[in-house]
């Protein structure tokens, strides 16, 4: 048995802001993927994944008791499959901000959800919000608190535009120009970031009035503008807003940026060769970069592992 593939995602814009109703834009990233598998594999990885899935199944059983109207699962089949050694075979790195638990949640819902909302039907806003609510509840097992966006992106394999908490839609983004010099890239920080502590830190900072004001008047303002610019293909305006956003993050989200990247972040802003921003909750994992000239960025970041994800 091998289930369908579910891909990683990249939240281009909206990290932290979407908690407070900023816009957001999330795109599938097909470089990493995962699938449910059953085999007699006795590898450490398969055993670990199987044990983790058994704990998740227990959580889903409790969740179903509390929220029968929201979602029901074929728990019997799920438990049988787990007893037969099912595991999640994934190349998606954990703790890197590209949705490893999101792909797993999407795979479980796809295989064991009863009366599930499918990708083939007309996805109204109500259906998207219901899916987001289901996925948020499911993924909370891994993150303590989840918006449900990562699994939604993985499940639909479409770009998702977040207008506000109650207003999300699938969207299209300008098609890639593979000869273009502009690029979105991932920078490997070389360390793992944990979502829960970072979100907790953010919530603590939100208790300060100055931080809340900055979030509303600067962070959300530039995030919203970046989303608009990216979707409409307004590159000149996009990079103006990206520079501002990168600056705001460096000034106000320092704990979420690995220390050894503070100078690199600043150099990008000062040289205009590239602009960095958080990829997911930060604290490690990947850092997201944008450049108008990928050759310049590669030269400036020659000591780092750089992976291009989108060209324009």
UniProtKB/TrEMBL annotation:
MF terms in GO: ATP binding; kinase activity
GHMP kinase N-terminal domain residues: 86-150
SUPFAM superfamilies, per the entry: GHMP Kinase, C-terminal domain, Ribosomal protein S5 domain 2-like
Keyword Signal: no
Alphabetic keyword roster: ATP-binding, Kinase, Nucleotide-binding, Transferase
Annotated Gene3D superfamilies: 3.30.230.10
Classification via Pfam families: GHMP_kinases_N
Transport among keywords: no
Protein name (Swiss-Prot/TrEMBL): Mevalonate kinase
Naturally occurring in which organism (per UniProt): Arenibacter certesii
């Amino acid at each position: 048995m091998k289930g369908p593939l579910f891909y990683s995602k990249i939240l281009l814009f909206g990290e932290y802001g979407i908690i407070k109703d900023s816009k957001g834009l999330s795109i599938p990233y097909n470089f990493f993927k995962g699938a449910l598998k059953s085999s007699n594999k006795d590898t450490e990885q398969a055993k670990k994944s199987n044990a983790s899935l058994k704990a998740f199944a227990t959580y889903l059983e409790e969740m179903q008791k509390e929220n029968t109207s929201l979602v029901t699962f074929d728990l019997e089949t799920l438990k049988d499959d787990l007893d037969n050694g099912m595991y999640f075979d994934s190349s998606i790195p954990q703790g890197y901000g590209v949705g490893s638990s999101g792909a797993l949640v999407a795979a479980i819902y796809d295989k064991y959800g009863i009366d599930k909302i499918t990708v083939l039907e007309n996805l109204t806003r109500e259906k998207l919000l219901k899916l987001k609510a289901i996925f948020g509840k499911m993924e909370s097992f891994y993150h303590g608190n989840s918006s449900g966006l990562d699994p939604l992106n993985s499940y639909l394999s479409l770009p998702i535009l977040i207008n506000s908490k109650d207003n999300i839609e699938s969207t299209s983004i300008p098609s890639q120009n593979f000869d273009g010099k502009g690029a979105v890239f991932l920078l490997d920080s070389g360390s793992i970031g944990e979502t829960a502590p970072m979100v907790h830190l953010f919530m603590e900072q939100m208790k300060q009035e100055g931080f809340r004001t900055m979030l509303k008047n600067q962070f959300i303002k530039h995030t919203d503008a970046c989303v608009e610019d990216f979707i409409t293909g307004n590159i000149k305006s996009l990079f103006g807003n990206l520079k501002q956003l990168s600056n705001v993050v460096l000034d106000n989200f320092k704990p979420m940026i690995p220390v050894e990247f503070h100078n690199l972040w600043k150099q990008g802003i000062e040289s205009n060769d590239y602009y960095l921003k958080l990829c997911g909750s930060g604290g490690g994992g990947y850092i997201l970069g944008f450049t108008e000239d990928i050759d310049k960025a590669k030269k400036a970041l020659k000591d780092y592992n750089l992976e291009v994800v989108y060209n324009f």
